[in-house]
């Protein structure tokens, strides 16, 4: 007997175009790509406004209620938008770990060790756009968005099924964990939307338990002012005293909640070679060197990487705190040198804190001198408090 024929309808033109666009994305160096429609993110708007009202994004001054509302409606950006292509590059590269060379070293977040992803992603997205135009044979109106408050990037990627929200509020992408940097192409093309992934963290709370500062105040909710990524990068002034001991050896960003996540541990290696550190100073810089580096040295070492965002003074400030956390009495002279002679009062003040924390015979005279003679009142106060702590 002849089996009845099962008729499978051929893929629609829209489906075929969508599949082709995804292949073009891979050819353009984008590790992942998925599609959602250009409709508004209605449910997200009150959530964002609630975070702002609760002070969870305090310090990110550009993230205003107006900006939050704007970012939830992609057609505010591009009235002709029909689809959004969520794309990403995977950045986990092999890591030999901190060398055991007796040098006190800081730690830079993995995404910031190699090329600055903003430029790299945009370059690849533009290349993809050119290929799409060649494919469809007409100009395609597009916006290219990378890490901008003009669109809710993780929400776009989640609705497109690129990944799902972890309780640390990063997007978890199958096969890559959260080691993916996201971008969005808003297009006037009608593409076939993908379905969101039906996955979640289940009962796991590892990242909530392991966050050094308790910044993950509840599932899916990070209190930015407590987060070390905020404090080491966006914070331009003093790091709050209660946060300083919790900073450990992080001098730019923090990866703890991602490192401990079981999904992240299963991420593929190696990823994009563009994210490999150029030198040890791009991953595990010497803390003494960070405290002594000049502007030209800073610019040369971190040229083309996200670390420039922290500025030399911010990185040296973080190095002082990290040395106070992981250093020993032998590190007192370099902190005393920074307290006496660093050109930035912000760095001298944090060096005073670190000296108070390490204590020892040489710390006290350096602090006494700064308390009396430093030209900056803030540094004199830091030295005064540090002397009290060195006594206790
Ligand atoms: S980046 Fe670090 S400080 Fe921020 S939430 Fe994650 S573990 Fe906590
Ligand atoms: S550590 Fe656990 S709770 Fe946190 S994001 Fe990963 S799976 Fe979710």
Automatic annotation (TrEMBL):
Gene3D superfamilies: 3.30.70.20, Leucine-rich Repeat Variant. GO terms for molecular function: 4 iron, 4 sulfur cluster binding; epoxyqueuosine reductase activity; metal ion binding. It is an enzyme of class 1 (oxidoreductase). One of its GO terms (biological process) is tRNA queuosine(34) biosynthetic process. Keywords: 4Fe-4S, Cytoplasm, Iron, Iron-sulfur, Metal-binding, Oxidoreductase, Queuosine biosynthesis, tRNA processing. Its EC number is 1.17.99.6. SUPFAM superfamilies: alpha-helical ferredoxin, ARM repeat. Residues 189-221 form the 4Fe-4S ferredoxin-type domain. NCBIfam families: tRNA epoxyqueuosine(34) reductase QueG. PANTHER family: EPOXYQUEUOSINE REDUCTASE. This is Epoxyqueuosine reductase.
